[in-house]
Design goal:
73% helix; mainly alpha
């Protein structure tokens, strides 16, 4: 199996795994959906055009924005949470 074929298999396996666990994801479901969508648009063995590169960069930016949103939400929860009464 050449590297390109292995990448396709790995990508397919990752998308399948994310699809399988999607119903169980509570916090990162939006990121998983976006990653599945990105994988469905990936093309291997073809030349990367400016259009493909721009689309991939858009996905990357959206994934980073979701990650930052989750980070901010987690920080806000940790600052507002009260210690449990013992």
């Amino acid at each position: 199996m050449c590297i390109n074929q292995k990448s396709v298999v790995d990508t397919s396996a990752a998308a399948a795994f994310l699809s399988d666990i999607l119903p169980y994801l509570l916090v990162k479901q939006a990121q998983a959906k976006l990653a599945i969508e990105l994988q469905s648009h990936k093309s291997f063995g073809r030349r990367l055009t400016d259009e493909v590169l721009a689309r991939d960069e858009g996905y990357r930016a959206r994934l980073l924005a979701l990650r930052e949103e989750l980070r901010r939400a987690a920080l806000s929860c940790s600052h507002t949470s009260q210690p449990l009464a013992g």
